[in-house]
Amino acid sequence: MKILRLSATAALLAGVAVPALAQEIRMYTLDERIAPFIEKFEAENPSMTVKYEVVPYQQVLESLPVQLAAGEGPDVSLTTDFGGLSKYYLDLSPYVDAAYFEKEFGQTLGWLRGDNKDSKAIYGVVDSMTVNGGYVNLTLFEQAGVEVPPEGATWDDWAVAAKKVSDAVGTDYPMAMDRSGHRFASLAISYGAEMVSPDGKPVLDEGFKKAFETFVQWHKDGTMPMNLWGAVGGAKTIDQFDDFVNAKTPFYFGGSWTLRDMDSKVGDAFDWKVVPSPCGPSSCTAMPGGGALVGFTHTKHPEVVGKFLNFLAQPENLKELVVGATNVPAATSLVESGLEYPGISPRVQEGLDTFTKQIPKMAPAAYNFQGWRFQRAMMNAETTRISQVLTGELDIDTAMARIKEDVDLAIQAAQ
Q1: pLDDT score, position 21
Q2: Cα(368)–Cα(198) distance, integer angstroms
Q3: Residues 396, 212: contact at Cβ < 8 Å?
């Protein structure tokens, strides 16, 4: 160190510039698309280095929380467990333009604040979103001579129309919904369910009960197949993507993340499109989702973390990042303007446009539920207890009471 200081002093006396020692941070990412942005950031900030590691999603979901609990892990990472990891997040407020973040990401900043909903802290960037939504087989509707319900159609409208199509052309069943508490939440909130109280407790209200009753009835009358929600126990998530691809159902409620796979697997087999969110008595809402880029408190270089995430959040970078991943944008300005995605088919572009247009219609309860620390516990409990009602193990009132007990136990365990 003495030699290094002497060398630096000599260089300064000789009028030679001394390069600053690099401040290095580590990042977890799911793919290589971040590389050009890192190169650009490092070119603009020669004293800062971002080393990234491409990791599987399972590592982010399971290993990252363990690392953070031990005070270890990367300085920056993608996360989808917004509220669950909030106690580890670095407040970026001193290093970013807070007014810009509030303007562009105001709806999603609360997801990262955990129990501190009134906080003004900025913990990360929700760069893109996923959106629940419906896919319709246009060819089957045309063959059946049934009109596709328009925007503003209710869940009941879709159930009636899909049943007419199924009866006319002989599909396995009229409607499908992924076995997922997240997908069911769209239905529940559209019926008026609040899901979570302002003080972070589970809410099982009349809106939830009405959605629950409707969902059970669809299974009993054959609108939905009993061999998924009713035949599989526990909280396991199972999608019905393949059934729609194979034309076993005219209507499928899944989400934006399957768009490109849908396009490639269906090919020319039939015409399809994404449709606006069905409406309940309360709203025409979907459930949001997605991922956020966050920094962690154990970092030795918080200013580098803050500067890097601020850099990624700028409009020109954010747009390129979202388009490159073929994602639905989260930033307000990009939602309002819409995005063009080079290299995709017209129906994928149309689908992305439709999903993006659902964002302004999402109910506040959907945003609140998505950012709740115990959302996963609630979704798992929903899935498990709905299945038990469908198999006759529980009635709806008992199942709702059990859901509340399940989540309350999760909250107690966390405390």
Answers
A1: 57
A2: 9
A3: yes
Length of the chain, in residues: 415
How far is 60 from 30, CA to CA, in rounded Å? 9
Nearest one of 167, 166, 168 to 176, comparing CA atoms:
166
Note the pTM of the prediction, 2 decimals: 0.89
List the domains of the chain with CATH numbers: 21-129+289-361 (3.40.190.10), 132-287+364-414 (3.40.190.10)
Cα gap 153→312, rounded to integer Å: 38
SS3 assignment, position 414: helix
What Rg value do the Cα atoms of the chain yield, rounded?
24
In whole angstroms, how far apart are CA 56 and each of 59, 262, 293, 328, 338?
5, 22, 16, 21, 30
Q: Determine the Cα angle at 181 with ends 177 and 187, to 5°.
A: 60
SS3 366: helix
Write out the E strands in 185-240.
none
| pLDDT of the residue at 18 | 39
How far is it, in rounded angstroms, from Cα 68 to Cα 297? 9
Contacts of 160 (CB under 8 A, 6+ apart): none
State CA 286 to chain mean position distance. 11
Kindly give the pairing relationship between strand 251-255 and strand 272-275. Answer: unpaired
For residue 207, what are the contacts with CB-CB under 8 A and spacing of at least 6?
Answer: 188, 189, 191, 192, 193, 194, 281, 282
Instruction: Give the integer Cα–Cα distance in Å for 164 and 357.
Output: 28
- What parts of the chain have a pLDDT lower than 50? 1-20
Those residues whose C-beta lies under 8 Å from the C-beta of residue 3, and which sit 6 or more positions away, are none
